[in-house]
Write a structure and sequence with these properties.
This protein is α/β, with parallel strands linked by helices. The protein contains 14 helices and eight strands. Among the domains are: 93 residues, no CATH class; 136 residues, Ribonuclease H-like superfamily/Ribonuclease H (Nucleotidyltransferase, domain 5), CATH 3.30.420.
Length: 361
């Protein structure tokens, strides 16, 4: 017998969003970890707001929404707000009821910018790292650093001479641009769309693109991210960022090791590490040059172990570029892309911790 389609009428149901989420769903473990972290950050979040005036979007919702965007590859705030209206899992993760409306996309984006000046994202990452340390998931002695190029949200057509920022005549919004026979460098040219993006390429023979440089500091026990940084893509960006990340995380007068690839094998960088009492477990670069790493370092078994463990950092970059949507950045400017990178690193750590200790998460 053919079923009939009937219009759904309004009715009052005695159910909550909690009942629609499977008990075995992994998002439950991630939400539990997130709630623990936000409870520790509650005093810092309260300091962001005044005691008078109209209530704003709770900062916990802003943080959780940023994590959901990374976990479920949401490409924009507007798309997230649209999905929040009908996705019960999203409402449950934020603690909303079944009938509560989603955020207005414009208001949500405006409130989210408040996280930039307050450095809340870095505070969330630091608290997640402290929670992982309490669970004994982090190595205190062995670390790895690496960098990658992140394609900026700007076209090569937007690259123009620094003294000529007028758009090409004709062609409408997408004019034809002929760069044949022209030499373009970061010293003479800049993108009109994203002035902080730089022309860069990964290696010889690779395509040059407008890019930022992304950098990570991870520990070698479980591969959790301890620090993340987005900088301009320069020739020394990876080594400069590595020293910044190490200075922020290292304990003074504590001997540690840091693994890295051949790009970090320079005399200046190795000397900078030794000044910080850091043993440089860096891959040797002997291509037409003399490596700064000698037998005093490579003869120890720990050197080989660091070289094997440092490759886990590629898993972090892979997750951030695919699931986190960082293969091509969706924001303009260093500040916004740093915010994206930090929350994406937090999301990666939460997923990793929930898998490592599912019984306690």
């Amino acid at each position: 017998m053919r079923g009939r389609t009937e219009r759904q009428g309004e009715m009052l149901l005695g159910v909550t969003v909690e009942e629609f989420i499977p008990a075995s769903h992994p998002i439950r473990r991630i939400r539990l970890l997130t709630d623990q972290v936000l409870a520790e950050l509650s005093p810092q979040l309260s300091a962001m707001y005044s005691n008078i005036g109209r209530p704003s979007v709770p900062p916990e919702h802003l943080v959780k929404a940023s994590l959901l965007m990374a976990l479920y590859s949401i490409r924009s705030e507007r798309q997230f707000c649209e999905r929040l209206q009908y996705d019960l899992l999203f409402k449950w993760f934020l603690g909303l009821t079944l009938t509560e409306p989603a955020f207005d996309a414009t208001s949500f984006t405006k409130n989210r910018q408040r996280l930039l000046g307050q450095e809340i994202a870095l505070g969330v990452l630091a608290e997640v790292v402290r929670e992982a340390r309490r669970r004994k998931l982090i190595s205190e002695d062995h670390f790895s650093v690496d960098g990658t190029l992140l394609q900026a949200w700007a076209s090569l057509k937007s690259v123009r001479p620094r003294d000529d920022q007028e758009p090409p005549a004709g062609g409408g919004r997408n004019p034809d641009v002929d760069f044949k026979g022209q030499q373009r460098t970061n010293e003479t040219h800049v993108s009109a769309t994203d002035p902080q993006a730089r022309l860069a390429r990964k290696g010889n023979g690779q395509e040059t693109k407008l890019s930022y440089a992304g950098h990570l500091l991870t520990e070698n026990r479980t591969g959790l991210i301890l620090g993340v940084l987005v900088t301009e893509a320069t020739g020394t960006a990876e080594r400069d960022a590595a020293l910044r990340l190490l200075d922020e995380r290292l304990t003074p007068r504590k001997r540690v090791t840091v693994g890295a690839d051949k790009g970090y094998d320079t005399k200046a960088f190795v000397e900078a590490l030794r000044e910080r009492e850091v043993t440089p477990h860096i891959a040797r670069n002997t291509s037409r040059r003399r490596s700064a790493i000698d037998g005093r370092t490579t003869r120890h078994p720990g050197y080989g172990q660091s070289q094997r463990a440092r490759k886990r950092i590629e898993e972090c970059f892979g997750w951030m570029k695919t699931v986190g949507g960082g293969r091509k950045l969706r924001y303009i400017g260093l500040a916004k892309n740093q915010l994206w990178a930090t929350f994406t690193a937090v999301a990666y750590n939460l997923v990793r911790m929930a898998k490592l200790q599912p019984e306690t998460a």
